[in-house]
Design goal:
mainly alpha; rod-shaped
């Protein structure tokens, strides 16, 4: 009886070893194939989405340029117009620019988009601070001058900081 058990052990033990070795080998091969497929999928996604991401960063940077207080005032200033009207027009332009580009957040990092959103809000604050210093007879030229004065005091504006950040982030994609 012990001879039979010994014979069974001598047959089962090597077979179990071969089975275990085969299983480990196949598992390792499957893991390699999965990693290879993941790399290929990542390459495929990057090939497909990279142009859209680049476009999103370009549009976000353009948004920052368009809502930069100096550029906005230069583009929208109409001499002789009441300051309150210009203030309302500037705020509307900022909101429209932002709303037009809000879908770009899908392709820009969450931190980058948060900076874009904060820059929009800070620009609105600058315009409102300047507008609140105007009286009923102030003109758009008065408002423009006050906005430029505030911009000069601030130094580097949030829109400029955000543009720099977006440029660095885009460069990291390559």
């Amino acid at each position: 009886m012990t001879d039979i058990v010994l014979h069974i052990i001598l047959v089962v033990l090597p077979a179990g070893g071969v089975l275990l070795t085969t299983w480990l080998f196949l598992k390792k091969q499957a893991e390699k194939e999965v990693r290879s497929l993941q790399i290929e999928l990542k390459r495929e996604r990057q090939t497909h989405f990279l142009p859209m991401r680049v476009d999103a960063y370009q549009r976000a940077a353009l948004l920052m340029e368009r809502i930069h207080p100096g550029n906005l005032v230069m583009r929208m200033h109409r001499p002789g117009e009441p300051a309150r009207k210009m203030q309302a027009d500037l705020l509307q332009a900022i909101r429209e620019e932002y709303d037009h580009n809000v879908s770009q957040q899908l392709f820009v990092s969450p931190q980058g988009w948060e900076m874009v959103r904060n820059s929009k809000e800070e620009t609105i604050k600058i315009i409102n601070i300047a507008g609140n210093q105007m009286d009923a007879t102030s003109t758009s030229t008065d408002l423009a001058g006050k906005i430029f004065e505030i911009v000069a005091e601030v130094g580097k504006l949030p829109t400029e900081i955000t543009t720099d950040y977006l440029k660095r982030e885009l460069q990291e994609l390559f």
